[in-house]
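Render Membrane-bound metal-dependent hydrolase in 3D.
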Amino acid sequence: MDPVTHFCSGIVAKNFLTKKRGITTTLIFGLVSMSPDIDNFIGISGNPFLYLLHHRGFTHSFVGGFILAYILYIITKIIKYFDDNLLINFYILILIHILLDLFTNYGTQIFLPFSNSRVGLNAIFIIDPIYLVILIILYFTTKKRVFTISSFHPIFLTFILIFTYPVITLLIKTTYELKLKGNNPNTIVATAPFSPILWKIIEDKGDNYQMYLSYKPDEKLIYKKPDRKFYEILNRDENLKIFRWFLKYPYVNIKKDNNKTIYELADLRFEFPFRENPFVLKIIVENDNVSYLFRHYKKNL
């Protein structure tokens, strides 16, 4: 999810998890909710493959999330901010962040350090204005109330209110996908801008993928899958292995430019007809030379 949505989820949770209502508390709870995205700083390494590997990595896992919560808890003690159940509340905020990211198409490595498998439910687009409006309404309608029925009740109610919309979108997606699988069992329903109203449909056709938007079922686009020989190139370099690990629905475009053959490798999760795919790896073959380019990073094999 985007940073604004994560911040809003935190300040909604604040209204249930603490009796404090000041601006300092609001800012702390909002910023803690955003804190797992501190892994974005891996971008300063200059290697975009490391960003793919580590963004939504350890700080987005159950174990790493608790360590992050404990570090933030120590920092709040140093700055002399005190509240009841602060460590537990910080971990709850971070769990909310992790689980919200789980609903997106990018996926989250929630089981690190035991497994680096990327789990994504592909039910909410990374920017969802409907959900953001719901969170803002929830914040203003609950900020003056204090929930003190029991220690369990506020936590339970927080998760219900924050995750009702994501769960509903997942149910809509699953129902729609099951319906389409009746005609083609290899059909995947994925998020698009303005999901859950609009969806992206991916059909596995063996050597190709066929993709279309739910409101334009007759405008189908064909995407070629990489062959085994192409994957052999990816296995020749550690960065390329990371990119292969990142892919879920890979496709490749092949272009000829004089003596060069340019392979553009990307993932249908991030493909939309009206915008450029943000994750495109270019592999350039010229005579006996092979190089690759991803964003600003270039290397010869």
